[in-house]
Amino acid sequence: MPIDPIDMPAALARMGAWIAAGEAQYVCCAPAHAVMECVDHPELRTVYEQSGMTTPDGMPMVWLCRWYGYTGTQRVYGPDLLLAACAEGLECGWRHYFYGGAPGVAEGLAERLRERFPSIQIVGVESPPFRALSAEEDAQAAERIRSSGADIVWVGIGSPRQEQWMAAHRGKVGAPVLVGVGAAFDFLSGCKPQAPRWMQRSGLEWLFRLASEPGRLWRRYVLGYPRFVVLVAAQLLRGRKANQRTLEK
């Protein structure tokens, strides 16, 4: 699974270049869980391979990039990327659209962002139903985004659904940049607690999330993460080169 060994300024610069050029791209934020999704569902790997950028969303991904020589790699975490892009876009006039979350969550997120960034341009919020949309519903949603004039669509409908949605809608909703940010809507709207920074920096955010939502997340962390560790160890022992794209892409 390809990971871009980047930091936050590089990620923002790449997004800004796409917006300036009107180039349709999508961004995946990849923690270890995303790698295991690609292991279990090989067709999903193509979605990540075709992204404009796949960021190291979790500390294990950062450590692996550094292991392979990309010492300047920093964590580009979905919620942090959202906030950084909101701040970066104030001067550039970036227009934001929020697509995802349970009913009311996107509205709550927009309200908090307006309090934090009074001049932010939020041109739309939408909470799609948590089911497959009909062709008509999907076309109507795409038209709403297109008519909003958004530069960035933040997609928070859960992984891998959001990555599949972005791959299917790149170039079809008018916005140059689509970014899948998972639970960022819940965290930044205040609907769910976020792990303390020290836990995030030390790679223990998974433990906080497991304690917060054991019923929903135990399979991901208790079953998935040990498999991830085993597969990483096997790769390192084999001495294989990391499947990482360079910044020159």
Descriptive notes:
54% of the residues lie in helices and 12% in strands. The chain is an alpha/beta fold and 249 residues long. The chain has a six-stranded parallel sheet with strand order 2-1-6-5-3-4, sandwiched between helices. Helix 2 (32-40) packs across helix 12. The longest helix is centred in the C-terminal third of the chain and has 25 residues, at 214-238. It is globular and about 50 Å long.
Q: What would a concise description of this structure say?
A:
This protein is of the alpha/beta class and about 250 residues long.
Essential attributes:
disordered C terminus; 249 residues; 12 helices; alpha/beta; six-stranded parallel β-sheet; globular
Kindly state the mean pLDDT as a whole number?
91
Instruction: Report the portion of residues in β strands.
Output: 5-15%
What does the overall shape look like?
A: globular
- The H/E string reads HEHHEHHEHEHEHEHHHH
Largest sheet features: 6 strands, parallel
- Global Rg: 17 Å
Helix content: 40-55%
SS element count, helices? 12
Helix/sheet category: alpha/beta
Q: Low-confidence parts, pLDDT < 50 over ≥5 residues?
A: 244-249
How far apart, in Å, are the first and last alpha carbons?
Answer: 16 Å
In what order do the strands lie side by side in the largest sheet?
A: 2-1-6-5-3-4
Please tally the β strands and state the result.
6
